[in-house]
Amino acid sequence: MAFKLTPVTNLPFFSKLNLTKRPQTIPLFPPLPLYSPYFQYSLTRKLPPSSSSSPRSNAVSEQVVESLISDSNQDSQNSPSTPSSSKLVLVIGGTGGVGQLVVASLLSRNIKSRLLLRNPEKASALFGEQDEEKLQVHKGDTRNPEDLDPSIFEGVTHVICCTGTTAFPSKRWDGDNTPEKVDWEGVRNLVSALPPSLKRIVLVSSVGVTKFNELPWSVMNLFGVLKYKKMGEDFVRNSGLPFTIIRPGRLTDGPYTSYDLNTLLQATAGERRAVLIGQGDNLVGEVSRLVVAEACIQALDIDFTRGQIYEINSVQGEGPGSDKEKWEELFKSAEKKSA
Ligand SMILES: NC(=O)c1ccc[n+]([C@@H]2O[C@H](COP(=O)([O-])OP(=O)(O)OC[C@H]3O[C@@H](n4cnc5c(N)ncnc54)[C@H](OP(=O)(O)O)[C@@H]3O)[C@@H](O)[C@H]2O)c1
């Protein structure tokens, strides 16, 4: 059954919901085609305090998100409270539309993540109290190199960067948080601070970045968003780090406002699950944020996506879900088409 929700541009979804105070088990994600397993928001289980906190860490603790259904593609088969994946994924922009889905999916896969956020409070609102072994939160703004303390990158094996701001002036530009500052300077600062041992950085960019002077992209680029995203991309490409760049079309499926969590969750299943991937910046269309989040996570583990740039759209129909082989086929077929 379809639910009508209102996508908004400035509100992270769940922002109106105080999940941490509800003494019951709430399914945070339904059995989504893209998110099998879904996971549950367990507010009852206490975990022992962790000893490995860094001074800047603001990890929320003591409660845990549990995976309810095992997934063939899951990194871990162990207890959901004990991450056994060797990955530690640093997510930047983890409270944004794509980012919150990335983080939720990493939690559901039992992969340890670390967030770098301007406002760590947002993480507790979105993800509840988590064991520090699963989710760590550091305060930082990518525009400030001094915020990118080496301790933030200690042990990090993979990075997913989904930061961004609005293409046109808005409240989100307050404090000079413009595309130039976020998509160019922020990405440059971040990449400059990353350790060379990193196994992969996935950068979420945008379709149209190579054509920002051409219509219709020049309209979107009136305040430079595509130009600055391309500069960020180029910095990543020239960094020597193993990278994958994902360029989404126009994003759908969130962020949402909703007065009812279950309604919201059903809506996030979305209808656009069939995935189109291209190369060469020729793809024009829309893509579900769920699909983009999944593509970022899949790319971490698919060797041949290293050093590649992909455009991504999604359309109505069945999609690859979290099936690694299907994603490999999709990424591979994009490369063949552009060859
Ligand atoms: N909207 C579209 O149709 C579209 C199309 C193509 C590509 N994209 C790109 O796709 C990506 C994901 O989009 P989205 O709409 O899901 O993202 P979003 O909701 O706009 O989230 C952006 C995230 O970046 C964070 N951020 C902003 N400035 C920051 C800074 N200076 N330091 C650290 N974090 C900062 C935000 O956190 P705060 O809470 O601190 O602001 C937020 O978590 C973005 O790069 C976007 O530009 C969007």
From TrEMBL:
Any transmembrane segments, and where? none
**Residues annotated as domain NAD(P)-binding:** 93-301
Q: Which domain of life is it from?
A: Eukaryota
Basic and acidic residues: which segments have biased composition? 321-339
Q: Where is the composition biased (Low complexity)?
A: 46-57, 70-86
Which Pfam families does the protein's record reference?
NAD_binding_10
Alphabetical list of CDD domains matching this protein: SDR_a5 (cd05243)
Identify the stretch(es) annotated as Disordered: 46-86, 317-339
Task: Supply the InterPro entries for this chain.
Answer: NAD(P)-bd_dom, NAD(P)-bd_dom_sf
- Protein name as annotated: NAD(P)-binding domain-containing protein
Species assigned in the record: Penstemon smallii
